[in-house]
């Protein structure tokens, strides 16, 4: 059986039509369902709202995170309510809000929001940012209103006076209490000299700023939090803080009275710190061996009680040994010999030690430099002559042997050569012994070093005051042959 379809009443059609053409545009315009919450809301009290309109954006670091909902007067101030999306949360209790223009020359304002420090508690939904944490942009009409004719005249005089102050050169009396580097310079010239040190000062400031960030993450945040706790402790103990300031004033006054000594201390601080740094480095290097020594000493310390126990019988035997009958006689002999030993020590101090000191000075200033010289001739080895002296001793010892592992090194030459040589004999008694003759195979080339006269003996002149002998002097050259050639054997 076919059922007849019921027709929709006209009144219902009218209601639906009204809802579509009234509620629909409202929802499209407001983008909010009535009687429902906007989500996370924040209020901010401004001294001047700068005519900010609803739906004006709320930004954090240039990113839009919400919209302005409403604006209402609160006495002479204005309270603005705005939303913050989840992407902009959390907003902390020490947050800061500013009204900024979106374009140049006014118009289209927005709220710039600083969410606050992470250590501060989160602001609850509906919470208010106080007027002390808000600011508004200065509008052009306010600037133009402030710069009226009298103000502009005062500003012109201010700029003119400021220019005169920069170009005016100081007098000699005004330079008395100034640094020598700026004597005779105008304000502008003195400011220009600041830039000579600006680069270096900026570099040091950058190093200090970088050091303030710390070496680990959140070091700076922890330092700021610690500073906050310190300031809070100062605020909670104002009387103690006043006493600290009074004592600090006393200390600074005492330092001012000793300014010259303080300046000397600061001047000597750099080399002191340098020496201290080297000492600390050496101490740091000595700690690992010291720790190893302590570890190795641990077993010995554990054996110490046993050592003390084992030492008791030895101590029992030592006591009689140290008695008057035993060690007393030794002590008596030592007491009798002590005056003689003291006299010997005094005599050694007055006689022996000065002589030893002079001998040491002679060795270090004369003998050693002489032995370190290199003999420069055709037989030179290129080494210091004290080495050649020891080489000669070794060679003489070897050549004096009849045989060794290398065979015979020195042989007596019984045969003579055709060349007759002779040398005066100063100790010869007989006429035939005044000159000694012999025959050699080769003619002598010369005598090196040349014999010289014996120097004058001066016992009152100290050895260390004498000049270092020159082993390459004139007498070190090749001189006439001795013995000299007397003829040739026929």
Offer a few descriptive terms.
single chain; 8-stranded mixed beta sheet; 490 residues; alpha/beta
Which helices and strands appear, and what pairs or packs with what?
Blueprint: H1 10-30, E1 41-46, E2 57-60, E3 63-74, E4 77-83, E5 96-101, E6 109-114, E7 128-129, E8 134-136, H2 140-146, H3 149-167, H4 187-212, H5 219-236, H6 238-257, H7 259-321, H8 327-372, H9 385-399, E9 419-424, E10 435-440, E11 484-488
Parallel strand pairs: 1-7, 2-6, 5-8
Antiparallel strand pairs: 1-4, 2-3, 3-4, 5-6, 9-10, 9-11
Low-confidence stretches: none
Which strand order does the major sheet show? 7-1-4-3-2-6-5-8
Number of strands: 11
Write down the overall geometry. elongated
How big is the Rg? 54 Å
Mean pLDDT: 79
| N-to-C series of helices and strands | HEEEEEEEEHHHHHHHHEEE
State the major sheet. Answer: 8 strands, mixed
Which structural category do the helix and sheet elements fall into?
A: alpha/beta
Quote the distance from N terminus to C terminus: 179 Å
Strand content: 5-15%
> Helix proportion of residues, in percent?
40-55%
Count of separate DSSP helical elements:
9
